[in-house]
Design brief:
The structure is a homotetramer. The first copy, chain A, folds into 3 domains: 98 residues, Periplasmic binding protein-like II (D-Maltodextrin-Binding Protein, domain 2); 79 residues, D-Maltodextrin-Binding Protein, domain 2 (3-Layer(aba) Sandwich); 125 residues, Alpha-Beta Plaits, CATH 3.30.70. Chain A contains 9 helices and 15 strands. In chain A, β7, α4 and β8 form a beta-alpha-beta unit. The first copy, chain A, starts with a strand and ends with a helix. Chains in contact: A-B, A-D, B-C, C-D. Chains A and B meet through β4, β11, α7 and β13 of A and β4, β11, α7 and β13 of B. Chains A, B, C, D: This is Prephenate dehydratase.
């Protein structure tokens, strides 16, 4: 029996579609879970090899339920990320025409993406929220609503027809998903990698956060995400989920993490993994003075000084 | 007819309870709105003098719907903040006993706060989510559910009894609310003030965010909130909602804002207003070199140098 | 009777030659003094309108006697600077040939500049130090030595002949001189200006000096000189003489000085004056965010925020 | 035959007195040299095991001839430092009384230290500069002058009497001397150490020097000396001689040096050696996050993360 990947279900959602873009997904048993928490718990207890969940999108930013699960509890690690462009199809029972549609349904998160389309094409349709876009499709199949906004791939699953596709109010609407597993050696660096950490400040003083970010900045490391999350110690107490360029095996990243470890109350390493947005050939060279070669040379030079040989 | 304050309804929620702690609320017409957006729009179009909405809580951090409304659209300003400790009461129809309760309801946000209490006291009760805690109370009144978790103050409104009060899983659970109006002169400084801004980076490079925070840090200004929000330009593009110590009429704050204005693509001023967590006597003195007196003295000294009189 | 300019004498030195490059020198009574201290004191007591003294050269760096005089005592200000390329002529009594020269003399500072030439051309000549190059020339005139290294212009003054000119071991040997007066309004900015200050740290802690330099760096201001000088409070206690790009009437410079004034124990303004090395057309534009226009715009924006008009 | 220590002569100077405070000096052949350069060259060519020269004093700051010799040429290393308080004795031929003194002599550097004493006690005495204080004493012995200012220890050497001792205008007048040898393993750390380096900037831009100092500051390392010296590439081009707290075997110092090595054009290590001003018990603990233990722990943590074991 193959190992299983838990994912945020139900079937037919964008999450499943994104997961299926991973080659290894074809050899795993893909199991939908009702929540991010339950999918990640399946990994923690060993029920699943990994979990595939959304972590960031272009409308909501960092997805807090996922971040909060990664920030707390038994440590987990991110091994892969997938970027999926989000465009909606309008799914109907076979034979339904645009003029027949009185009710439409989808997950509330879909609403900002289809609002303009609705106003232009179905100004009088009544909106009903569903627990997921796939659920909305199911309810259309069952005759409760006339049409659902969902990924085009959901049509076949629920015996529906695509009446319109490519619906998206915002250009560049994307969701980022991650494959999360139990801690193990990170994937080898590809030259276009990302490192995720959570930082807790030792104390709160002017410049505290600036100094944390300085550990990245002074080593020429760009940040891709900075999301504050409550620590649970009361309002105004935050930790910081950070995605930074580079791989923990890059010397500049390793030294930045060491610096953070020394000055933070706590640092949680969430993994180093290949970037989904670019490949190595598109990544600009490290800033002068921050390449692995320069780190090694500097380290050897100090060793020689310590020995008096120079 | 008195001016009206819009607030996130319905009646009987914590938002209303928080709003009523403001003395001026007694002289206004308090009008519930169905969403943060509609409450703020009421201010924008002049239908309400101000809107009162939640902006941060100890579980969720920054409340993104509120922040996103303040970040975009016609500029608004924050004039007051209120901190409310969140503890729940279990509300039932008169005569209901604990043993009678089969179904409980509340807004989903209440669930993490009452989970332990439920497990210990009503392990078999079925949870049904409601649109708000007040709605849950109304549904109990109408007989649909047996009990609702809501603020104690909601009991009278819906003819219910408090079967248990002071329910809260997490200590220090608090929500912060703000009173938002159209731009006008900020309230006078009290000595314990807070300034809110939104920052958009000019470009994205290593150290960019560190340098923005440096404008506060070098002037000894502590930050209370740093919440990234998507700019709408695609995944990974963020602006930053920041709450900083001090008032825009404090010289160190004014100069920090000027510095940000110069190096940011855009800065949106969201107001300077009294802090709800402390009063002036609890605020530590500005770091040496950052008091108003020192700013004034330095400015006068430079003016004298420019004139050659020293 | 014209106002007089004091200068570091005697007549016939590079200092006098440099002074005569200033157009206004033609209208002043130029008076040699025996020391930098006496020349500056002449200004302090009102005996001279200004003093012209060397302040930096490419071999010695900052000239400490001049810097120490400017750092302490009654405040003075720099109004002009002059750069002079230093090449030596070998001066002899008329008729003297190279083969006749047994003794050469000059100020000790000349020695590093003529050492190679001596080795190649007069390997057996005996060196005798003189109080100044001009004094060496005078002693040659009086027959005490056979040849003097001095500026070519000194030949006529002492009735000597130039046996060889253009002698200089180091390329780019230059000395910088300054015209120093009593405090008054600085010269108008030219677009290629320099500002000189002396900084005393408030206390000594890791990062103290870094933070002082940060006041320049965060405003895009380059430094041209950083020379530490003892404060007189015991070994290891230093103040810092700094030359920075720009004019005190530039907003970025004014704000940097204000910042320094606030965080330093003491700041002494030594003047803003035109650079001698470049003209306005060769100066690169201020870094984005640091131009006068951007400072003014930022200041006006904050004023509007303070008024609630935006 | 014992190894020899070269020192800046002649005999009877403060340099010799300072050298004799080193226990190992008793077992070496102490050889005076006429200049700092010749003493250091004796080490470079293997004629002497080490050279003992002044490097900083409370009046002049960094002694540029010594610094320039260490900055350029074949690398040398500092192994020890000695601090000597400078007070002068007035030395006379036996039998001379104060009223007999018409001429006094000393090295010009002594003048600022004895000026007030002279004014009060010998207002009419004529000052004659000598090449060294010891030379002045010799010239008194030979009858050329009536009195010399020199170290009390010079009296015996030249057959003179101490007429007055403890003469010093400035309190805390001290000179710092260093023992310089060929590169070898630095002395073991004592807990109160100092590390000397020379830094050349890669390029000159706003914030360049600030960033160099940041390598020390972010690791909690205090600086004791920052002396700019011309690079020889023309006026305004400087390298920086820096003395920093700590020993190259301290992790925070080693990492700071690595950082400098990466971002500087060149770094010259001048040694780590015990501080003469304090002992380990007077040195404050490293700033939190910068102790060796914390560096080691952070390094091990990153190694564990790289292996996925945490």
């Amino acid at each position: 029996m193959p190992a299983s990947y838990a994912y945020l279900g139900p079937e037919g959602t964008f999450t499943e579609a994104a997961l299926r873009t991973l080659p290894e997904a074809a050899t795993r048993n893909l199991v939908p879970y009702v929540s991010v928490q339950s999918a990640l718990d399946a990994v923690r207890v060993g029920e699943a090899e990994a979990a595939f969940v959304p972590i960031e999108n272009s409308v909501e930013g960092g997805i807090t339920t996922t971040l909060d699960e990664l920030v707390a509890g038994t440590p987990l690690m991110i091994y892969r990320e997938v970027l999926l462009s989000i465009t909606f199809a309008l799914l109907v029972r076979p034979g339904t025409k645009l003029a027949d549609i009185k009710t439409v349904s989808a997950h509330p998160a879909a609403q900002p993406q289809v609002r303009n389309w609705l106003k232009a094409n179905l100004p009088d349709a009544h909106w009903e929220s569903a627990a997921s876009n796939a659920d909305a499709a199911r309810l259309v199949q069952e005759g409760q609503y006339d049409a659902a906004f969902a990924g085009e791939f959901a049509a076949a699953l629920y015996g529906l027809e695509v009446l319109e596709s490519g619906i998206h109010d915002a250009e560049n609407a994307q969701t980022r998903f991650v494959l999360v597993g139990r801690p193990a050696r990170p994937a080898a660096p590809t030259g276009a990698d990302k490192t995720s950490v959570v930082l807790w400040q030792r104390d709160d003083h002017p410049g505290g956060l600036r100094d944390l970010l300085g550990e990245f900045a002074t080593r020429g490391i760009n940040l891709m995400l900075l999301q504050s999350r409550p620590t649970g110690a009361g309002i105004g107490n935050y930790c910081f989920c950070i995605d930074a360029e580079g791989h923990i095996s890059d010397r500049r990243v390793a030294e930045a993490l060491m610096g953070l470890k020394r000055i933070c109350l706590e640092v949680r390493f969430l993994g180093s993994y290949p970037r989904a947005d670019v490949t190595a050939k598109d990544v600009s060279a490290p800033r002068p003075g921050t390449s692995d070669e320069e780190f090694v040379a500097a380290s050897e030079w100090v060793a020689r000084c310590q020995d008096g040989r120079f």
